[in-house]
Design brief:
Number of helices: 11
Number of domains: 2
Structural class: alpha/beta
CATH superfamily of the largest domain: Class I glutamine amidotransferase (GATase) domain
Radius of gyration: 20 Å
CATH class of the largest domain: Alpha Beta
Largest sheet: 9 strands, mixed
């Protein structure tokens, strides 16, 4: 059973690969009670909005198997947008303020690019914490990615994130720390992409009752969970949804910002991501860019050559974790009184 959508438009890159599918047009249409209803709040900046939507849809589609999944897209209205992207969101996304009027089994909240040292000073903070409070009372489980995870623990437990000395950027090995339903059939060591300037610390999370499922000596805490009222909150500092070229695109974007003098230092290459020949190519490019720092240098950036060498070594593990998550939601939904009542009505 494929991932399906209603009003939300399928991301362009996904539609090109898989065609357009919706609950209303799917050949094996299922009832609402049989289908997992997931709200995905996509808060990424304009340049990454569609790519991020495609990444999550692809990962959920790989994870779903025979579990019917219906996704609806939302976005926080206070995220700065261009007129073009605002029109796209108005046409294809739901207003997040309508969430209390809808019924969803689960929620996914993406990160976004922070602009304030204190997340409570971000223009979307009040709306975001309202979403967290709603999710605690109305979902079986909620996944919080990167900045959304940082915002969640700050709101719930007052845990502050900590600024890193440099960007945590690359693909890092993490160790499984606990046996947990989300980690079923997951190997003891996994690889996960990370891209962030801040971190949450293990001791502060554990002292507030969070269970650590993965961590790394290099990248710190990866995946951690806590039951909050009715909902299991699943927090990820990494990005298992990333595609093979996502870190490359971010690295090129950071180089562009340096060449435009929007950042002071030339960005560090992502760890554990490029092979030796590519590292040499990029080192040579860096030397040229530093000797002649001009945006025109990007004309010679070897995107195509590098892209051919990249492999998504984390997708299968990410799909397994998300499949375990979908199974968890299915099992908890099946025991919920409201679902049991709907199932009895459907059988009459």
């Amino acid at each position: 059973m494929p991932v399906m959508m209603g009003r939300s438009r399928i991301p362009a890159t996904w539609a090109e690969k898989n065609g357009r599918r919706s609950v209303r047009s799917a050949g094996n249409c299922v009832t609402r009670a049989e289908c997992l209803q997931i709200a995905l709040i996509n808060n990424m900046p304009d340049a990454a909005l569609d790519d991020t939507a495609s990444q999550f849809v692809e990962l959920l589609d790989s994870a779903a198997g025979d579990i019917p999944v219906h996704i609806e897209f939302y976005s926080l209205p206070e995220i700065p947008r261009s007129d073009r992207v605002r029109q796209h969101i108005n046409a294809s996304y739901h207003d997040v303020r309508d969430l209390p009027d809808r019924q969803f089994d689960a929620l996914i909240v993406t990160g976004t690019e922070p602009h304030e040292p204190d997340l409570r000073d971000e223009p979307y903070w009040r709306t975001l914490v309202d979403v967290f409070d709603w999710a605690e009372r109305n979902t079986v489980s909620t996944i919080l990615s990167c900045l959304a995870a940082h915002a969640s623990v700050l709101h719930s437990d007052g845990i502050e994130r900590h600024l890193l000395r440099g960007k945590r950027f690359g693909v890092f090995e993490e160790r499984k720390m606990l046996d947990h339903p989300l980690m079923a059939d997951v190997s003891d060591r996994i690889r996960t992409p990370h891209s962030r300037w801040n971190e949450l610390r293990e001791d502060e999370l554990v002292s507030c009752g969070y269970a650590l499922l993965t961590k790394s000596q290099e990248s710190g805490v990866g995946l951690f969970v806590k039951q909050k009222r009715k909902s299991l909150f699943v927090h990820l500092q990494g990005h298992p949804e990333y595609k093979a070229q996502t870190l490359l695109k971010e690295y090129r974007r950071d180089i562009k910002r340096f060449l435009r003098q929007e950042r002071e230092t030339y960005p560090t290459m992502p760890c554990g991501y490029f092979n030796a020949p590519v590292t040499k190519l990029l080192t040579d490019f860096q030397e040229q860019a530093l000797s002649h720092p001009n945006e025109n240098c990007l004309t010679f950036f070897p995107d195509v050559v590098i892209a051919e060498t990249l492999q998504n070594t984390w997708h299968s593990v990410g799909a397994r974790i998300y499949r375990n998550w979908l199974r968890y939601v299915v099992s908890r939904k099946a025991t919920a009184p409201a679902f049991a009542a709907m199932a009895r009505v459907a059988r009459v």
